[in-house]
Each structure stands twice: as C-alpha cells, then as structure tokens.
C-alpha cells in the first residue's frame, strides 16, 4: 500500500508541475440595463426590462493559444421577488490565434453577433445573455467573419430540439465602403423524438453595403443598405395559405454632428417577411395568429450616445421613436409614433491570480 501511495504522490507532483506554470485570472463582466419599449401594436406589445446580469469566471491559460473558462452567469430583474432570477453555467474552451478564434461551450454573443434588428431583436441580449454551442471567428486582412451554432433546446419525448446557426461577414473594399452579409437559420426538429410536431425551419439572409465617412459639417456619417430574404416558419401551426417566402429592404442613415451623439434613421419596406428571432415590427405576422399584413412599412428615428473608458467600461444610451405602418399609439399621445429607450452600462473586471 505504501509504495502505491508514494507512486501516486509522485504522479500528482508531475501532474501539478505544468499547472503551476499556467496563468490563472479571475474575470467578470457586469451589465446593468434599462430597456423600455412602449409598443401597443398588432406586432409587438410593450415591454419593460430593468435589471443586471453578472458573468464571472476563472480563466486558465494552458498554453499560448488555448484557455479554459469556468464560472456562472447570474441575472437579476429589479422588482423581482426572487433573489436571483436565473443562473447559468459558463464553461468553454477556446483556441486563439493571430487571426482566428474558436470556442466550444459558452459562446461570445455580445451585441447579438452583429446581427441587425430584422434578423434578431435587440432585447435578445438582455433576455438571453448566454448561448452554448460552437463558434469560429476570422479576422484576416479586410475580412471580419464569424459562424456559430447556438443550441437552445434538447430533443426529448416532450419537445423538439431547437438550435440556431448563424454567419456574418464584413469586407472592407475601400476606406469608406464595406460589404456586409448575414444569415440566420432557426431550426426545430430532432431525430430521436418528434414530440407530436413536424420539423420546421426559418431562414433569413441579408446582404448589402455600408458607406461611412467623416464630413466636416455633420461629423461621422454612414449609410447602410441591406436587402433581406426570409423563408419558412418555426410555428408548426402557421397557416398554410400564407406565403412561405418574404423580402424586405432595410436602410439606416446616421450623422454625428455634435457631442458624439449619433442621430440615426431607419426605413423598412417589407413584403411577407418573417424572422423567427427578429424584431416583430419588421414582420408581416402579428401576435394574434389571425392578424397578417403582407405589405409592411416601418420607420425608426433616434439619438444614441456611446462612451467607452480606457478601463473598458462602456455606456450605451438610446432614445427612439417608431412609426409602425400607420397604427395609432396608445402610449405616445394618440399619434402614429411609439417610444422606446435603452440605457446599458458594461463594467469589466480582470484580476490576475497567478
């Protein structure tokens, strides 16, 4: 027995030697948010989301390119009777090279993978701050691209599996011109159990360009033009007599004339468009299953201020007015405009332990 213990102790010493040479950090990301959307239209109802979530983890670097994250993500809504409204694990292994990053486990989903609102609603980063799956990002020369798989539900006898597969790519073709492409596939299916519902899919693609420059009389300015296509629906009971394919055109113009405050405007024209994860203000189906409007018009005007300190703390503030078709607003004095605002503060903390 004693020789065995000696051998076991020797193996432990050998195993711990490389660990002692590793770098170990304690990292945290606190996100405080206040999001209010005064929507009272057939497409989307008003929603107020106030709270904070904290992601904290130990980061162990086992080599020059690989690392392991292990921790937890905690979400707390102000006014809730629960001490913590949700807690999810953070567990990921990552490989990082000079131009590439690969992640298995908890994904880096900050700012919704750069997806525009018609593909993914802006409140998604507040309601679903943690995603799990696979991710690969490539930054090489003029190309900045990313692909990911976000696994949302398991396939059980009671439910279909659900996942999202996304891809985005930005290509700088000139100092003032950028080509953009985005795709999101939402899937509900599974081979083990059908849960009594058929396989359904929703695919949305966007392609276009971004023109940006700095002009003497309006400061930083930009114009984005994107063409979008949608096909399919996740809802297995979606009416079969409605079109399965849709299209839309999304335009966003902005100027920054004073105090680094961005003045922006969005214009949307759509027909039979639907994105399962997108902002419902852009789609033809309403919240009521019987409501449907093939031709859609949407306008958004807003002010945005973004500040980032040298320590990495950032502040994002927005106030927005929305005109959704010609629907009258119950929230904004009986006009055809809706109101929303958002305030987000992100605070990073990094402590080197060893």
Describe the overall structure:
The structure is a single chain. This protein has a single domain, classed as Beta Barrel (Porin). It has a 16-stranded antiparallel barrel. By secondary structure, it is mostly beta strands. It is globular, with a radius of gyration of 23 Å. The model is unreliable at 1-20 (pLDDT under 50). It has two helices and 16 strands. The protein has helices spanning 2-20, 124-127; strands spanning 23-40, 45-61, 66-77, 86-96, 100-106, 132-140, 143-153, 161-174, 177-189, 200-215, 219-231, 245-256, 261-271, 295-308, 314-324, 338-352. β3 (66-77) and β4 (86-96) form a beta hairpin.
Series of H and E elements: HEEEEEHEEEEEEEEEEE
Number of domains: 1
User: DSSP strand (E) fraction?
Assistant: over 45%
Basic shape: globular
Side by side, the strands of the main sheet go 1-2-3-4-5-6-7-8-9-10-11-12-13-14-15-16
The CATH topology: Porin
Individual helix count: 2
Secondary-structure arrangement, i.e. CATH architecture: Beta Barrel
SSE arrangement:
Elements: H1 2-20, E1 23-40, E2 45-61, E3 66-77, E4 86-96, E5 100-106, H2 124-127, E6 132-140, E7 143-153, E8 161-174, E9 177-189, E10 200-215, E11 219-231, E12 245-256, E13 261-271, E14 295-308, E15 314-324, E16 338-352
Antiparallel strand pairs: 1-2, 1-16, 2-3, 3-4, 4-5, 5-6, 6-7, 7-8, 8-9, 9-10, 10-11, 11-12, 12-13, 13-14, 14-15, 15-16
